[in-house]
């Protein structure tokens, strides 16, 4: 019943999905943290940029963002992201698009965590001479991260599923292979079940592990 799988590299496709998720998650966490810092910054220009970015990007379909990275950045502007290999370029463009999109949700999750930190702690930090950057990095963000592990886990799970959109620009991840297999094989339901099970294996442990971590590191108020 599963003999047809020998002609396809299913594990390789899911490995590409894992790579997309990991690289995009790291980039989204970094850029999302910077956006959250901008949104609570005392500088009006930075606050305005952070607010505009989040409100615009999270209301644009991810498919449009991914297609823009390929059609706009690569094909129109000729941006190759340091490679001549078309496969590598598409992979990096997909990561860039996923980072641009997911970081908006990371930002909002972090901003909600920042709002849970008592104002008195930031005021006390300023009273002893700490500047905004020091207050944010030494006092506020450490507590904010501990309080939003759960929401960030949800963002990571959503990111894992969103990697399927990378198939739109030819990245050979799980959804791309599934489409190819459905076109060439008759066992449509079985193929769909195999890939659905694969994504459950990726996302379910993530949710359980990060949920447990969230409870362990939660700030006791």
From TrEMBL:
Task: Tell me which Gene Ontology terms the entry assigns under biological process.
Answer: amino acid transport
Q: What is its main location?
A: membrane
For this protein, the record's Pfam families field holds:
BPD_transp_1
Instruction: Give the Gene Ontology MF terms in alphabetical order.
Output: transmembrane transporter activity
| Record domain ABC transmembrane type-1: where | 14-210
Instruction: State where the protein is found.
Output: Cell membrane
GO annotations of cellular component type: ATP-binding cassette (ABC) transporter complex
Q: Which UniProt keywords apply?
A: Amino-acid transport, Cell membrane, Membrane, Transmembrane, Transmembrane helix, Transport
- Bilayer-crossing regions: 12-38, 59-77, 89-107, 188-213
Its membrane topology, per UniProt?
A: Multi-pass membrane protein
Q: Which family does it belong to?
A: Belongs to the binding-protein-dependent transport system permease family. HisMQ subfamily.
Q: Give the protein name, as stated in the record.
A: Glutamate ABC transporter permease
Q: Whose protein is this, by species?
A: Streptomyces spinoverrucosus
């Amino acid at each position: 019943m599963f003999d047809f799988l020998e002609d396809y590299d299913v594990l390789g496709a899911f490995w590409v999905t894992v790579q997309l998720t990991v690289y995009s998650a790291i980039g989204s966490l970094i850029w999302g943290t910077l956006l959250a810092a901008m949104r609570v910054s005392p500088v009006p220009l930075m606050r305005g940029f952070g607010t505009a970015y989040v409100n615009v990007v999270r209301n644009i379909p991810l498919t449009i963002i991914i297609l823009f990275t390929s059609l706009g950045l690569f094909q129109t502007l000729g941006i190759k992201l340091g490679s001549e290999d078309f496969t590598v370029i598409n992979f990096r463009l997909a990561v860039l698009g996923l980072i641009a999109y997911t970081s908006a949700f990371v930002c909002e999750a972090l901003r909600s965590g920042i709002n849970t930190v008592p104002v008195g702690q930031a005021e006390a930090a300023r009273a002893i001479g700490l500047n905004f950057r020091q207050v944010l990095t030494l006092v506020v963000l450490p507590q904010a991260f501990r309080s939003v592990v759960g929401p960030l886990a949800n963002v990571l799970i959503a990111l894992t599923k969103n990697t399927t959109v990378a198939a739109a620009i030819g990245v050979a991840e799980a959804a791309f292979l599934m489409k190819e297999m459905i076109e060439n094989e008759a066992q449509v339901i079985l193929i769909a079940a195999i890939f659905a099970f694969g994504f459950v294996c990726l996302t379910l442990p993530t949710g359980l592990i990060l949920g447990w971590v969230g409870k362990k590191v939660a700030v006791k108020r």
